[in-house]
Design a protein that fits this description.
Largest sheet of chain B: 6 strands, mixed
Helix content of chain B: under 10%
Structural class of chain B: mainly beta
Number of strands of chain A: 11
Distance between the termini of chain A: 36 Å
Order of helices and strands of chain A: EEEEEEEEEEE
Oligomer: heterodimer
Shape of chain A: globular
Largest interface: A-B, 26 and 25 residues
């Protein structure tokens, strides 16, 4: 029972490089979320999805793109990484969003130099 | 989108009850109230959620005001393992933001032995 798995757990990028963070859930959840958390701050919603093939913008979407081609996977892309995107990224999933609990991954620590 | 307001920090003694308040005066009729907590270096963990009625589970109780403009998370007997950041979240059930889970700054709970 894996729950929510984030890949990779750590990554160092150079400014301008691109990368994709993968979030995978095995609970058949409809809703998936990507957050970022800067040191000493709360979580800020980047993008979210309410079902396969859907995506929506959160509070801080600029500089990120997402895709939800398969129900179990939610990908977060950085096309041209910037030092301001250094953060810990968390993925979450839930069965019905507002009515059920969300499960979080353990996070991806990304450093952009 | 409706917002939540929480105290920045609270302190408690071990084995005493803790009441963590949250104001959400602009909540809409269909928004659910969720509470999550985050231990150091971990992803957030679900605590409890509700819509109108008070809710209990093995971790905590959630008391929701009759007008739903505020709620209180109750930890009946605080332990050192309950020291964490507690987030009160509104989960949007309708409109263009349905399914959205937006975190605020949270309350840092310190538990003294």
């Amino acid at each position: 029972n894996a729950g929510v798995t984030q890949t990779p757990k750590f990554r160092v990028l150079k400014t301008g490089q691109s990368m994709t963070l993968l979030c995978a859930q095995d609970m058949n959840h409809e809703y998936m979320y990507w957050y970022r958390q800067d040191p000493g701050m709360g979580l800020r919603l980047i993008h979210y999805s309410v079902g396969e093939g859907t995506t929506a913008k959160g509070e801080v979407p600029d500089g990120y793109n997402v895709s939800r081609l398969k129900k179990q996977n939610f990908l977060l892309g950085l096309e041209s990484a910037a030092p301001s995107q250094t953060s810990v990224y968390f993925c979450a999933s839930s069965y019905s969003g507002e009515r059920t609990e969300a499960f979080f991954g353990q996070g991806t620590r990304l450093t952009v130099v | 989108d409706a917002k939540t307001t929480q105290p920045n920090s609270m302190e408690s003694n071990e084995e005493e009850p803790v009441h963590l308040p949250c104001n959400h005066s602009t909540i809409s009729g269909t928004d659910y109230i969720h509470w999550y907590r985050q231990l150091p270096s971990q992803g957030p963990e679900y605590v409890i959620h509700g819509l109108t009625s008070n809710v209990n589970n093995r971790m905590a109780s959630l008391a929701i005001a009759e007008d739903r403009k505020s709620s209180t998370l109750i930890l009946h007997r605080a332990t050192l393992r309950d020291a964490a950041v507690y987030y009160c979240i509104l989960a949007y059930a309708g409109g263009t933001s349905y399914g959205k889970l937006t975190f605020g700054q949270g309350t840092i709970l310190t538990v003294h032995p």
